[in-house]
Amino acid sequence: MRATWTVWDGEAAADRKQWIDLWSDSAERHPFAHPDVCAALRPKGGRLMAASLSHTGGHVLYPFFLREIDGDLARAAGLTGDDGAPLYDLVSPYGYGGPMHWRIGDVAAATVKFEADFAVWAEQNRVVSEFARLSLFEESLLPFAGHTRKRQTNLVRDLEVTSEELSQAVASKVRSNVRRAHREGVTIVVDTDGRYVDDFVRIYSETMERRDSVDWYRFKQPFFEGLHTALPGQFAYVYAQLDGRLVSSDLLLFGHSTGYYFLGGTEAEAFPARPNDLVKMESMKWLRTRGCSKYVLGGGYVAGDGLERYKRGFAPKGQVDFFTGERIFSDAHYERLSAAHRSRLSAVGWDVDESEGFFPAYRYNAELLAHSQVSVDSGASSESETPNAHADGFSRSLQEAAS
């Protein structure tokens, strides 16, 4: 079979249809690879695209955003020619991604073909760098062509166990909190069509307000309705009900074999009843019943924090390293952009903290720099627009753990 490499524009109807057709035929139907889910989590200034390859009886799909690099920065770096053509970089959507493959007969050959064609496309489109949040499961991912960096520990619960093992192989505090929830009269409601989405938005919004979350995380009802349309049969809200009121919930997204914790929240007044421990336990049981073999709970804000410890209670042996992929297509352009950006930071008394491992370096604190009224094109996006963007596949978990 002849190998076919294509880049789709997610904003074009015909390309979007081909993308959805390929996604629908995939083995996993990975929720974070659907174009409408990607679009819902769009960074400012990003144009949704996807690279695909058909090779040796199988396929590769890699969604990403093409972002224009700040024109003022490019000019300061001396990189804008007479034609004024912009420079770009790539970033994968929030979630877990990278070039995912299925039914490929020769993965090594497919990798060579995919990366060679991708590099040519990047050069033709003046792409300087690429940042990808990689899937936790290497068996479904082409080897990344650039540098990979370990970021955080994520927690993944094995669901291929008996129901008794699932209930017992958690931290003693989790078992105690689940018993307490039962004693308090907490019951579980599973919603697979979004009929109670108003309650989820209420609980979630209260949680974000309590946490003083940035605006990017404050998703409104149309966001969730868009997920329902994109992923029918691949989402579930697991609610805790107390005294006839829904007081805690986790939103799950799932493919054929893997479920993902996505968003959640708990009413503060319900904390003493420990409803979210029961929600997470019943989420795992429900996913197991529907045939999932793994449940990804995500990680914390920073390594070893309280949120990570809370999630570890549900998957004590489920530590999996989360990696990001970083690639520079033009070393010269990258260095000149980074040098120009460092000069701008220095002009306002800021330094680049290289220990953070921020990539690409020329976007470090770019949003804050724009707000300081230094001459930066505010239309360009930045990884710093969402805090702790390298923490885990969802940039950071939004669940508030009840103590």
From TrEMBL:
<comment type="similarity">
    <text>Belongs to the FemABX family.</text>
</comment>
<feature type="region of interest" description="Disordered">
    <location>
        <begin position="378"/>
        <end position="403"/>
    </location>
</feature>
<dbReference type="InterPro" id="IPR038740">
    <property type="entry name" value="BioF2-like_GNAT_dom"/>
</dbReference>
<feature type="domain" description="BioF2-like acetyltransferase">
    <location>
        <begin position="172"/>
        <end position="312"/>
    </location>
</feature>
<keyword id="KW-0961">Cell wall biogenesis/degradation</keyword>
<keyword id="KW-0133">Cell shape</keyword>
<dbReference type="InterPro" id="IPR050644">
    <property type="entry name" value="PG_Glycine_Bridge_Synth"/>
</dbReference>
<dbReference type="Pfam" id="PF13480">
    <property type="entry name" value="Acetyltransf_6"/>
</dbReference>
<keyword id="KW-0808">Transferase</keyword>
<keyword id="KW-0012">Acyltransferase</keyword>
<dbReference type="GO" id="GO:0071555">
    <property type="term" value="P:cell wall organization"/>
</dbReference>
<protein>
    <submittedName>
        <fullName>Acetyltransferase (GNAT) domain-containing protein</fullName>
    </submittedName>
</protein>
<dbReference type="GO" id="GO:0008360">
    <property type="term" value="P:regulation of cell shape"/>
</dbReference>
<dbReference type="InterPro" id="IPR003447">
    <property type="entry name" value="FEMABX"/>
</dbReference>
<dbReference type="InterPro" id="IPR016181">
    <property type="entry name" value="Acyl_CoA_acyltransferase"/>
</dbReference>
<dbReference type="GO" id="GO:0016755">
    <property type="term" value="F:aminoacyltransferase activity"/>
</dbReference>
<dbReference type="GO" id="GO:0009252">
    <property type="term" value="P:peptidoglycan biosynthetic process"/>
</dbReference>
<keyword id="KW-0573">Peptidoglycan synthesis</keyword>
<feature type="compositionally biased region" description="Polar residues">
    <location>
        <begin position="378"/>
        <end position="387"/>
    </location>
</feature>
